Sequence to fold (173 residues):
Amino acid sequence: MNYLNEPLPVIHSARVLCYAVNDDSVHYTDRIELHAGVDSKFKRVGEMPLLVISRNYVKPQDILLFFCNSEWEPQGTIAFDSVDEAKQKAERGYEGISHKWIDSAYSENQINEYLREEYEVDPNTELWKTECFFCGLDNDTETGKIMLLGKNGYLCGDCVKSCYEVVSDMENS
Fold:
């Protein structure tokens, strides 16, 4: 698979549907108000060279518009109800981008191979289910519970509290 000139088949737990390159034929209008950050420090995301539209595996009803740097790393994301809605929003900030969209060339087999190799999951299972790795709490059936996403799964708020108490007790012993 060629990852240099096109995005990976899956970015941030979302299957890539199409992508566009912001080149000289596209005019950046700065009409998208997008802020992203970590630890409550948000900064405005400016012009990005690459845009990617993906379907979220965790919430398949969400279509995600990623604003990516030159390494295909998302610097900001907006969720939409449809691909057309995401493309319209992209056109608002990047005039001319609507003619630049390229469908992902990856086959279902290539995507499944990538999920096995990079995510170490079996794509035939419910791999994106929001279930606590420790206690098995299913956030789809018990809504309102806090779920933290780690590298290999989710952890519910109750288990985070329990882990904190165990570690605190061990440190104070």
About this structure: The mean pLDDT is 84. The chain has two domains: 10-119, 129-173. DSSP finds three helices and twelve strands in the chain.
